[in-house]
């Protein structure tokens, strides 16, 4: 079971750096169909940053969202996170993860931060719990009552 790790101790400098890295990751997005670029930067509990971007496919339901950077981290043996920043080209509102991505992020705890950004670098901070309250969790699989 993954532990929760709050970003309460993240400095403003670290948050800005994470957001900048998510915007850099966005530049690698492969989105020839929607033209909707998304990047993410995932901060691990040991302060490593793992980046990712969305990857579309001609068969639309086979695309991969940027927030699935978690899979890249897991493949490297990392399962505990402090925060993730998500970036897009949207100017009028903050980018938010889709429902599927919220559930994937929730797998690794509820008390870590999700920074929803705009392309100008502004952001709002949420937790996984904020984005997916009363969620299904790994604990539910062991609760037989």
UniProtKB/TrEMBL annotation:
GO MF entries: cytidine deaminase activity; zinc ion binding
Gene Ontology BP terms: nucleobase-containing small molecule metabolic process; pyrimidine-containing compound metabolic process
Residues that hold Zn(2+) according to the record: 65, 98, 101
Keywords: Hydrolase, Metal-binding, Zinc
Domain of life where this protein originates: Eukaryota
Catalytic activity line of the entry: 2'-deoxycytidine + H2O + H(+) = 2'-deoxyuridine + NH4(+); cytidine + H2O + H(+) = uridine + NH4(+)
Domain CMP/dCMP-type deaminase, chain residue ranges per copy: 13-139
Active site residues of this protein: 67 (proton donor)
EC numbers on record: 3.5.4.5
InterPro entries the record matches: CMP_dCMP_dom, Cyt/Deoxycyt_deaminase, Cyt_deam_tetra, Cytidine_deaminase-like
GO cellular component, one term: cytosol
UniProt keyword Oxidoreductase present: no
Keyword Acetylation: no
Cofactor(s) required, per the database record: Zn(2+)
SUPFAM superfamilies, per the entry: Cytidine deaminase-like (SSF53927)
NCBIfam families: cyt_deam_tetra (TIGR01354), PRK05578.1 (NF004064)
Function: This enzyme scavenges exogenous and endogenous cytidine and 2'-deoxycytidine for UMP synthesis.
PANTHER family: CYTIDINE DEAMINASE
Protein family according to the UniProt entry: Belongs to the cytidine and deoxycytidylate deaminase family.
Name the UniProt record assigns to this protein: Cytidine deaminase
Organism of this sequence: Tetraodon nigroviridis (Spotted green pufferfish)
């Amino acid at each position: 079971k993954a532990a929760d790790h709050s970003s309460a101790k993240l400095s403003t400098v670290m948050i800005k750096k994470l957001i900048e890295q998510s915007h850099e990751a966005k530049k690698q997005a492969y989105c020839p169909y929607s033209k909707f670029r998304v990047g993410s930067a995932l901060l691990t509990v040991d302060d490593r940053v793992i980046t990712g971007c969305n990857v579309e496919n001609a068969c639309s339901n086979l695309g991969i969202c940027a927030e699935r950077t978690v899979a890249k981290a897991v493949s490297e043996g990392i399962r505990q996170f402090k925060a993730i920043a998500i970036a897009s080209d949207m100017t009028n509102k903050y980018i938010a993860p889709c429902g599927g991505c919220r559930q994937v992020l929730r797998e690794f705890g509820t008390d870590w931060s999700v920074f929803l950004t705009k392309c100008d670098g502004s952001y709002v901070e949420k937790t996984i719990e904020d984005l997916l309250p009363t969620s299904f969790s790994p604990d539910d699989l062991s609760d037989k009552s």
